[in-house]
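1st attempt posting a full record on here, be nice pls
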Amino acid sequence: MAPIFILIIVLYLTSSIGYLAFLFSQKESFHRISYGLLLAGFLAHTGLIAYKMIILESIPVHNLHQTLSFAAWALAGVYLFLKYKFRLNILGLYAAPLAAFIMVAVYWIPEAPGAHGELFKNLWLILHVVIIFIGEAALALACGTGILYLIQDHAIKSKTNRFFHKRLPSLEFLDVTGYVFIFTGFTLLTIGLITGFIYAQQVWGRFWSWDPKEIWSGITWLIYAALLHERLVAGWRGRRAAIMAIIGFAAVIFTFLGVNLFLEGHHETFTK
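the predicted structure (as tokens):
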């Protein structure tokens, strides 16, 4: 499957270059080309994942190689959908390179044997994995929106460099869009955790086992819950919300990768 991997990486990378050109030129033609390349990469990626599902007869997240590929696919897909809905074109400058970076890492990670395929045919596990990955993709985009907010905020306050001020959306638009991304991701994360609890009860006989990934998933959930609560109750907006979105996604990354690399538990078997 090396050729299809290379094709996906090339499409994601060229899309990233196109979005960079769009940032500097602000020409709509660069955006259309970049969007088309990212869409083509996503469709090729979808074909690869579908092929893996047919071969494995289950959802392809048996090891770190497959799991990261699935994460990149979810990120590209969620961006393509949310971009269409919110017209946040410049966020492709964040989404496309991140998807490309993940796929480059995937290419060099050996596809080692993972957990037994029968485990991945459970409906609750399938729902858990798909919903969690889509939710985390939305939270990744919230992080990207938060980064754009901080860049635009600095550009406005410094009054010396008008490059980003002219090219990025307004602070209000970025703040509202970031909130929608966080709310969407948090909702899906909550549903994903619930389906995970149900699966754990079926497989291990208990909803909660103090597994490291369960603990860090709970910590991540609490971070976003606190952010949403403070936004609604205390009016957390703007710069503070943007920083919290970045911190929250850092917790997501540690839960996704750090726990598997440094700690041991039930989930470790699925991502090695």
